[in-house]
Amino acid sequence: MARSQSGCRTLFSVGYPATEPVRRANRGLPEHIWHSALERRGDLRAGAPVAEPTGVIDLTN
């Protein structure tokens, strides 16, 4: 999350194709790092868990 000089919070996400190595890495992520996604207004988004796999999945190619 980034905060602008005006104090406004900016949230973003980046997608990546779910290739087999990505799916395999996602399946190996510990349960405790998965969180419920949020809708634009901050409500929980049912059925849309999110996790931060940085450092776990090699996306160099």
Task: Quickly describe the structure.
This protein is an alpha+beta fold. It is built from one helix and four strands, in the order E-E-H-E-E.
Description:
The chain has 61 residues and is an alpha+beta fold. It has one helix and four strands. The strands form two sheets. The chain has a two-stranded antiparallel sheet. It has a two-stranded antiparallel ribbon with strand order 3-4. Strand 3 and strand 4 form a beta hairpin. It is globular. The mean pLDDT is 78.
List key phrases describing it.
61 residues, alpha+beta, two-stranded antiparallel ribbon, two-stranded antiparallel sheet, 1 helix, 4 strands, globular
Main beta sheet: 2 strands, antiparallel
Beta-strand share of residues: 15-25%
- Helix and strand content put the structural class at alpha+beta
Determine the N-to-C terminus distance: 26 Å
Percent helix, as a range, is 10-25%
Tally of DSSP β-strands: 4
Average pLDDT over all residues: 78
Question: From N to C, what is the helix and strand string?
Answer: EEHEE
What order do the strands of the largest sheet run in, or round the barrel if closed?
1-2
Poorly predicted tracts of residues: none
Structural Rg: 14 Å
Q: How does the overall form come out from the CA principal axes?
A: globular
Number of helices: 1
Layout of helices and strands:
Blueprint: E1 2-3, E2 9-10, H1 20-28, E3 35-38, E4 44-50
Antiparallel strand pairs: 1-2, 3-4
